[in-house]
């Protein structure tokens, strides 16, 4: 049996160390008799005849545990609380039950542990869970506001069982049986296996030099009926351009950004808004791998259970081709990842459909390079009647409005080169720049309060693509900014820094140095801060979760 950790108990609990072991093994009193626990209680605790109440790690405040402790106190039965692994509790109940029955019960206990891990992540509003199984330990991390936060450690055996349970017993869509030495993908979609805050969980595993890594992407279902893009952080001008793209009957609109930049959330709101504005008379069909977020009024299809990457590519392309025969008005393709899916998406946009999709690219204009890299012809990619929208986005942390501090009050907080960059880039708005504060009760001592989109939206015309076809990318960018009113990712980020919404240090981690386009940005920022309508726009930002 693993060593116990003794902690203080209730009114009748002894706070001393665990009593010495007796010659005979203690009996399990919570299995039956006067101290019998309910089925739910026995999953989380075990009361022994030597006075120890074993409670699963992290479950001390569970309602079932608190109820059982209250019953012991009411019965005036003294006990000493010891925190142990949940496997220890399962092993005590399974003693003598036979190896096969014990394994089944242990598997069930691990499902309880896995669900509690998901509940814990939801309470912390984590976007991902990282479980790293190593030679001598298992480490668990939550990604909260883009930072990895260490949650705790366990034994290697514990981690191996947890990963096997998550993949083998909880997933509804997976490649095949769990294989720790292979890279695998899966998803959890059964609502009875998920906390109420989640719509689903995406799972990816990979073997490492020390063991196995599993990453779980949490897909929250709190978007509700929201269709407005501005609370996500998009500017008024962005929202207007995206509205025009929604109203175009044909053409391909592509959203780019790294993993976890909010692309799926943006797509969800764009399509939900189009459906609502069309009074649910729009046939929106999605092809996803797998389905991530629910879109009310859309028909969502999933491409899953492929045995290999080649098979998945073939099935995905076949699903897109099939979607075009199902009389859609709008097709949403989860992600363009290879030449076959890119060709299918392009063909859909050329045959009278509106297409929305995502791709991994560093900027809006870099989407063109990515499509060419996938093997699409330049004459089709650089056609404004075929490719109608190029969008790129990132997520930046928003400062807690209650504890943020002004940069002018703490200039030494920034290194001299960065301070000079910020002063040059923000110009007259320098006095409004703020830094993350020490943390407070409102932000749970983080100094930040959610994340906000920074984006660039290109609605190309014939002249823009003429520059692209001629290889004059810099001229295309300048034309977009000067003639089409474009705003780069850097400029949008600077506007939020200048409004005191984003810490410049956090901004540079996302978009790089803030002074790359200082002269022009300074002029733009002065306009932003002087125009009442735009100033209000800058304050309309909010939180968004990764997809």
UniProtKB/TrEMBL annotation:
Residues 324-338 form the Bacterial type II secretion system protein E domain. It comes from the Bacteria. Keywords: ATP-binding, Nucleotide-binding. Gene3D superfamilies: 3.30.450.90, P-loop containing nucleotide triphosphate hydrolases (3.40.50.300). Belongs to the GSP E family. The keyword ATP-binding applies. This is Flp pilus assembly complex ATPase component TadA. The keyword Nucleotide-binding applies. InterPro entries: P-loop_NTPase, T2SS/T4SS_dom. It comes from Massilia violaceinigra. Residues 1-22 are annotated as: Disordered.
